[in-house]
Design goal:
Shape: globular
Strand content: 5-15%
CATH architecture: 3-Layer(aba) Sandwich
Mean pLDDT: 96
Structural class: alpha/beta
Helix content: 25-40%
Distance between the termini: 40 Å
CATH superfamily: Thiamin diphosphate (ThDP)-binding fold, Pyr/PP domains
Bound molecules: thiamine diphosphate
Number of helices: 7
């Protein structure tokens, strides 16, 4: 079954369309655009056959994830225009996001616990950034998920930055904390360069 119908160009064009709308001032809320990780995201959705039974969790930068999860393009576009870009939630599609750093990792792990113990189909996938992956709650959630063998995968999309701060310089470590540990079994990690500013189009304050 071919679950992923989105191409790299489709995803990039969607973000370009949102950028154009955002530039008009019509979106009265923060928007975080991403470009440069389309192929990696498509590969993850394809290789893990992420489908309707699975839960996907993301953060403020999840337009592409919503499309790949199967939320119709028009619904995603409308939610963004309505100002919900940083917290896209589509319960009918098992898709949930939050604009709060360090949130949702326990939620995804709890959903995985429920899926396992209720003998339900589906897994949880949570996509976050490199600084989010350095938080204590990320470590706790991965530790719990590993030792209880829960069906949750933590996907770390490393663009090297936390807003405008160099993540590796903050921690004084050349690699993410989980490199070379048993926790890597629960983590998918890739690097990319975001072709957009952290948020908006770089004309106003970034947050
Ligand atoms: C609790 C909290 N503190 C601060 C922020 C502001 N903030 C939004 S995104 C972000 C950077 C997070 O960095 P990273 O996890 O690497 O994400 P990415 O660069 O991929 O957007 C920060 C500090 C926030 N959203 N929530």
């Amino acid at each position: 079954m071919k679950l992923v119908t989105w191409t790299k160009e489709d995803l990039a064009n969607f973000e370009k369309e949102i950028a154009t709308i955002y530039a008009t001032g019509a979106i009265r809320a923060p928007v975080h655009l991403r470009a440069g990780r389309e192929e990696q995201l498509i590969k993850i959705f394809q290789e893990h056959a992420i489908g309707p039974d699975d839960f996907v969790f993301g953060y403020w930068d999840s337009h592409e994830l919503a499309l790949l999860k199967g939320v119709p393009r028009d619904e995603v576009r409308q939610a963004i225009v309505d100002g919900k870009s940083i917290s896209l939630c589509f319960p009918a599609y098992n898709f949930f996001c939050s604009g709060i750093v360090g949130s949702l990792m326990g939620t995804a792990t709890g959903v995985a616990w429920a899926l396992k113990h209720q003998h339900k189909k589906g897994r949880a996938f949570i996509f976050c950034g490199d600084m989010s992956a350095e938080t204590g709650i990320f470590h706790e959630a991965v530790k719990y998920a590993l030792y209880y063998d829960l069906p949750v995968v933590f996907v770390v999309c490393d663009n090297g930055l936390s807003v405008m701060t160099d993540t590796r310089a903050v921690w004084g470590a050349p690699e993410p904390w989980f490199r070379g540990t048993s926790y890597e079994k629960k983590i998918i990690y890739f690097k990319y360069t975001n072709m957009y500013p952290h948020s908006g189009l770089g004309r106003l304050i970034k947050f």
